[in-house]
What we know:
Elements: H1 3-22, H2 26-29, H3 35-44, H4 55-68, E1 74-80, H5 82-85, E2 95-101, H6 106-123, E3 125-131, H7 135-141, H8 143-151, E4 153-158, H9 169-194, H10 198-222, H11 233-241, H12 246-256, H13 264-283
Parallel strand pairs: 2-3
Antiparallel strand pairs: 1-2, 1-4
Helix pairs in contact: 1-6, 4-6, 7-8, 9-10, 9-13, 10-11, 10-12, 10-13, 11-12, 12-13
Amino acid sequence: MSKGRGAERRLSAYSIEKRRRECSHPRLDAGFDGHAAWDAVYSRHPLALPASTPDTVARALVKLTGALQSLEDVRGLVLYGSLARGEYRVEESDVNLAVSLGRADAATLRALHEPLRVAWRAVRVEPFVVRAAEVPRLAEAFPIKILDIHQHHVVLSGEDPFAGVVVERPTLQKRTEQELRNHLLRLRRHYVFSGDNAALLAKAVYRSTTALRYELGALLYLRGELVALSVPSVLSVAARVLDLDADALARLERFHAGNADADLVQLFRALMTLVERALAAVDAT
Length: 285
């Protein structure tokens, strides 16, 4: 083993142990010291987490759920995003958690502060704080996000505010076009400033692949395709149904999965073309 790789592994182990320590907090840990005690707690109050959930994340969510579900105005806790889809990556992904409230006044939000702050420091729990009554309006304002949550979510505690959500077709179509146009404008700007510098283009390609999954997933949904938004299979289905460049989409997926690409400059240019073609597909939907 090289010295660099050994140091990298030690750093990774240190980071994991650091997060375990940060996950401990008097308000969350009261009466539960040590892993064995937490195993007992989890056995009494199991969470319906995906099988791929890392142990550190599972423990943090058990603690957080216990702390939040006792608060008067918390109606429900719903896991969504990469962890709910089984695509969570340690040290890379956030843990997306919808916190459904009866009221969202200052006092209620203040009560959420400490447990959510601790959970963010521990495993990057990213809260989506909503009032249960406003979810239907959120489906109008953010139809792609709400549709994705509706397709992939896990109720950890209480009510499911997304159970009866309806995303209207005209709203979704308009939002999909907005997202794609904004995506294309961002890519053009990035290329203007980055030029053919592959190192500068790499992050944009990675982020754009994530965004493109959602956008193409919404477009496929509009076409009547029963494919879940944001999952890797979206890109291959989009190539077939929307007549997009299958090779470019496959290269994007491989790059997003951590594999190097031989020509990032050409891939970035192909990405811009893909977004333009997707926009034309919206117009034809």
